[in-house]
Amino acid sequence: MSNTAVSLPEQAYPERKNRGKFGAFLFELFKNKFLYLLALPGMIWFFIFAYLPMGGIVIAFQDFKAMKGITGSEFVGLKNFQFFFRSSDWIQIVTNTVFLNVLFIVFNTLAAVTIAIMVTEMGGKWFKKITQSIMIFPHFLSWTVVAMFVMAFVATDGGFVNQILSMFGIAPVQFLSSPAYWPFILVLLKVWHGAGFGSIVYMATISGINPDIYESASIDGASRLQKIRYITLPLLKPTVILLTILAVGGIFNGDFGMIYAIIGRNPMLYPTTDVIDTYLFRAMMDLGDMSMSAAIGFMQSLVGFILVLTVNYIAKKVAPESAIF
Amino acid sequence: MIKESYSDRLLKGLFYLLIGLFSVYCILPFWSVVASSFTSEASIVKNGYMFWPSDFSLEAYKMIFKDNTIYRAYGVTTFITVVGTAMSMILTSAMAYTLSVKSVKYRNHMAFYIYFTMLFHGGLVASYLLISKYLDMKDTIWVLIVPSMLSAWNMFLLRNFFASIDDSIAESAKIDGANDVYILFRIILPISLPAMATIGLFYALGYWNKWFDAVLYINNKDLYPLQYLIQRIMNNLDYINQISADVSLPNFIAPAMTVRLATTVVTIGPIIFLYPFLQKYFVKGLMVGAVKG
Q1: Is the pLDDT of residue A14 over 90?
Q2: In whole angstroms, how far apart are CA B275 and each of A99, B70, B283?
Q3: CB A148 to CB B20 under 8 A?
Q4: Three-class secondary structure assignment of A220-236
Q5: How far does the CA of residue A169 sit from the closest CA of chain B (Å)?
Q6: pLDDT at B48 over 70
Q7: ipTM value of the model?
């Protein structure tokens, strides 16, 4: 094992050299054969379900016909990309995707940090436990279930919001045909769904702060608010930055599950809610336009990839320990 | 201990209030759906959704449980959750263990091979074509399991946990003549129970809440998972007409709204009952991951 290489470097080296590169490779495989066998099924799975689809990117440059398959379809160069950019849709869906994601990141982070700070400041035990359980719970519901909840609130006849409005004599709002309200509704839902769960990480960070710091601040007469402002928040900053950069890497990926489940196929709401992923999905399933969908997906992957690398580069500069690789 | 000042206590009180309010906000949608599902259809049509069942009725639940659609959907979802989670855990832990053993020379190459899939992906179209056309998995129950069997994220989480276990444990077992497979299943996994529970929970929730794969690949009604059934009945009335077909009363109106709500409640049921037990694990597991990561 590795011990021999450490204790007898002079002997181990020439021996390995004699074996040759391929021989050394086989030797390593044989030496750890059980371990490599354990990893093999997973490696094959990643090859089939992650690497093979990468090869499918060629569809983006083809006029793909299901009958002819990937190998038989004709290459058309960048035509699919041109087709996508010629329609005016792309500006809207890209704007929507980025706008909604920025809103989600900002409000979710704010809410999660606030919850984490407030919960750690609370003294009571049972109240803390119960509220925490309730706040994390929404994260475990699928968006299809959430969509059902949304209906109960925004339905034109009988929805809660309109019931309350009518109590004040205000005319009901037609939520399902008014796109202007939806970025706001989606943000409320996102916070509802993810803030409690997201606060766990921040709570972990806060619980890792040395209690002596708070102790000495108290002795110096710092108030609760001052301790939060001058101790907790600065020490939370690295975590907030790290998680935000990570989220920014995915800013071109719309939350398909959420938006498709809640908005579904309601064209009246597309002006503010149609994102790249839902557009791509419709192009594929409804129009059957595999090539254009593949082109959109390819650009999305590529931009996402570049963003992650950039963001990681920035992270390395700003805070080396928070870089991902 | 220094006595708290008046303003400090006020602030604390404010925190209690805000957290209390946010908790109400979190539970309210859920509560209202449960309450409305126990209300008669006529009352909902007349008065709208409500926070308290005004005209108590079990009609919707009776209708759902009379038809076998819900049982089938439950069966499908339970199957993919149990079998899927088991398969995911075996594959993930086997792979994570290999990547955590320092004497494996190519472990960093293998880690990069997996890591790259988190950075770049072939996109929906290519996966769709692969699964439906080339692997021919459409309309089989396995399409809901196999393509989502491994998550690179979970694998790395578990690898980090395994890597934090003292090497000497595996080392001494090796000297006693145990092979790596034995060491993994008999020594490493039993001491990694909290981490395994957390990851298992993430996988299980993924399977339980699965519906998009069904949108893409499932046309056979017998293979609808629960969450997809919800999505279907929200968007069309087929299911409601089907389960109310054998009611032959005059002036009978199919309870479209309450059936939807009741189906939603029935879907969430198991999560609610398991939640208190699971919460203990994943909060701990996530804390460990966060502090280490």
Answers
A1: no
A2: 34, 22, 12
A3: no
A4: CCCCHHHHHHHHHHHHH
A5: 16
A6: yes
A7: 0.85
Rounded Cα distance, B293 and B289, in Å: 6
Contact across the interface for B49 and A225, Cβ inside 8 Å: no
Residue recorded with tokens 């709401």: A269
Q: Do B130 and A46 touch (CB under 8 A)?
A: no
Tokens 């998550």 label which residue?
B151
A285-309 tens-digit pLDDT? 888 788 888 888 888 888 888 888 8
d(CA A203, CA A119): 8
- Please indicate if any CB of chain B lies within 8 Å of the CB of A306: no
Domains and CATH numbers, chain B: 68-235 (1.10.3720.10)
Enumerate residues 242 to 281 of chain A having a beta carbon within 8 A of any beta carbon in chain B: 256-257, 260-261, 264-265, 277, 280-281
CB A104 within 8 A of CB A190: yes
Cα(A284)–Cα(A301) distance, rounded to whole angstroms?
Answer: 17
CA distance A212 to B166: 30
pTM, rounded to two decimals: 0.83
Q: Give the containing element (helix H, strand E) for A75.
A: strand A74-75
Q: Is the CB of A1 inside 8 Å of chain B's CB atoms? A: yes
- What are the structural domain ranges in chain A? 2-62, 82-322
Nearest chain B Cα to A49, which residue? B147
- The answer for residues whose C-beta is within 8 angstroms of residue B95's C-beta and 6 or more apart is A38, A39, A41, A42, A43, B114, B150, B155
Q: Do A192 and B184 touch (CB under 8 A)?
A: no
Cβ separation B94–A301 shorter than 8 A: no
Residues B150, A46: C-beta atoms closer than 8 Å: yes
Q: Which CATH class is domain A82-322?
A: mainly alpha
